[in-house]
Amino acid sequence: MNKLISAICSSLLLGVSLTTVHAQEFDRGIVLNTFIPKGQWVVGNSISYSEYSNDNYQFLVIENMDGIGYTFKVSPMFCYIVKDNLGLGGRFAYERSLTKLDNASIKIGDDLNFDMDNVYSLSHSYSGMAIMRNYISIGNSSRFGIFNELQLSLGGGESKMVNGSGESLTGTFERSFNFNIGIAPGLMAFLNDYTAIEVNVGLLGFNYSHVKQTTDQVYTGKRSQNMANFKVNIFSLGLGIAFYL
């Protein structure tokens, strides 16, 4: 009985101590200025395009590579500031890639060589994303700030790859589905009162992908992947321009 009474008293004292600590005010000196005021619309877009051509190119173990290709991506964005420094909106993305490889040789050793020719690959992907943005000014500046973007996206895509020619022709068709939850902090700088340059990078998130594959219209296969990322992903670096209206 004495042990029970002692335990109850200890619990009460702990509760009182926690309540007292919680009641004490602690000021870190952080002042949240109004960087993006309520009622503004944010619209923007990022576009990227790359093209390459190889003529008898050599890289590491790859020799005699001839081919062309390109990658195109467009990603419009809109957001409404529902309260000071807080916005809700959406983002859409479309990407298309083409690769034509006439020939290439992979030489790992004297007895281990591979030759590739007539490789054609075409893929396109699309996604829709819901976003929530929090803005913070850098110091008392009204021109430079940082933001954190919470992203929830659904997407998919299709791709086909053809290899060989004549009787040795073979082809593979794929359909994919992707689900992603992530956080992408970034920096921004206003060029004038309504135009800003923004750059952000994926920091952490969870991704699920599912791919269904058909080869030569006969053989089928599936692949699913779950991935949690808790590090900076430089391949998700985004650079764009936004208009604050």
Topology overview:
Layout: H1 2-23, E1 41-59, E2 62-83, E3 86-109, E4 112-137, E5 144-163, E6 170-190, E7 195-202, E8 204-215, E9 219-229, E10 233-244
Strand content: over 45%
Q: Cα distance, first to last residue?
A: 70 Å
Which sheet architecture does the biggest sheet show?
Answer: 8 strands, antiparallel, barrel
Overall helicity: under 10%
Radius of gyration: 27 Å
SS-based structural class? mainly beta
Report the principal-axis shape.
elongated
- Uncertain runs are 18-23
Q: Order of strands side by side in the largest beta sheet?
A: 1-2-3-4-5-6-7-10
Instruction: Tell me, rounded to a whole number, the average pLDDT.
Output: 76
Could you tell me the number of beta strands?
10
Helix tally equals: 1
Order of helices and strands: HEEEEEEEEEE
In short:
The protein has 245 residues and is mainly β. 9% of the residues lie in helices and 71% in strands.
Task: Write out key terms for the chains shown.
245 residues, mainly beta, eight-stranded antiparallel β-barrel, 71% strand
